[in-house]
């Protein structure tokens, strides 16, 4: 079955993009990576999403995350659309965006990665791409997958928030609770025994008392 599951290695596809031809693994290098797909060029929701992604590019760079978009049109359409995206952002209407857009006019990559939305079709009845977000770690394995239908735009603040969580939890034996944001306290993961937790988190652990008497709700300041 096409598609990618958590822990799968990113396929090393070779594609044309607005920044030239790339091989995906070379593009990622040792960085984190985010691949986000779009139904089509010159569509309203996609334009707002790519505009926001362009504005947030410095934030992704700070986090060592390489950005790359995909839409099922060709490079010349992507470049013309980029002018609209920059104009939408109130910037010079140039073809330059801070990340490449993959050309996938034949949908080869969208099919391989399981990105098509069966409910949204073009005038020829062909499915459009859904709004997929894949985040890859420096080991090129899939760390996060989000799948929205074409008709619902994503929240890029949320995407940055999950990148913060992924990077924090990759390095520390913690998990981030509901609505967590950078700087908030985090939870000690259940597999860490009490004595190890005390050593790992010298800033202290607060354990909430619960009716079950089980001591699993353990908070610690963000490492
Ligand atoms: C949009 O980007 O606005 C869009 C694309 C495909 C279906 C619905 C909306």
TrEMBL record:
Thioredoxin domain ranges (all copies): 4-168
One annotated Gene Ontology cellular component of this protein: cytosol
Gene3D superfamilies assigned: Antioxidant, Horf6, Chain A, domain2, Glutaredoxin
Key word ATP-binding present: no
GO BP, one annotated term: cell redox homeostasis
Keywords, comma-separated and alphabetical: Antioxidant, Multifunctional enzyme, Oxidoreductase, Peroxidase, Redox-active center
Positions annotated as active site in the UniProt record: 46
Keyword hit for Disulfide bond: no
Catalysed reactions, as listed in the record: a hydroperoxide + 2 glutathione = an alcohol + glutathione disulfide + H2O; 1-hexadecanoyl-sn-glycero-3-phosphocholine + hexadecanoyl-CoA = 1,2-dihexadecanoyl-sn-glycero-3-phosphocholine + CoA; a 1-acyl-sn-glycero-3-phosphocholine + an acyl-CoA = a 1,2-diacyl-sn-glycero-3-phosphocholine + CoA; 1,2-dihexadecanoyl-sn-glycero-3-phosphocholine + H2O = 1-hexadecanoyl-sn-glycero-3-phosphocholine + hexadecanoate + H(+)
Signal sequence extent: none
InterPro entries in UniProt: AhpC/TSA (IPR000866), Peroxiredoxin_AhpC-typ (IPR024706), Peroxiredoxin_C (IPR019479), PRX_1cys (IPR045020), Thioredoxin-like_sf (IPR036249), Thioredoxin_domain (IPR013766)
GO molecular function: 1-acylglycerophosphocholine O-acyltransferase activity; peroxiredoxin activity; phospholipase A2 activity
EC numbers on record: 1.11.1.27, 2.3.1.23, 3.1.1.4
Function: Thiol-specific peroxidase that catalyzes the reduction of hydrogen peroxide and organic hydroperoxides to water and alcohols, respectively.
Similarity comment: Belongs to the peroxiredoxin family. Prx6 subfamily.
PANTHER family given in the database record: MCG48959-RELATED (PTHR43503), PEROXIREDOXIN-6 (PTHR43503:SF4)
Name the UniProt record assigns to this protein: Peroxiredoxin-6
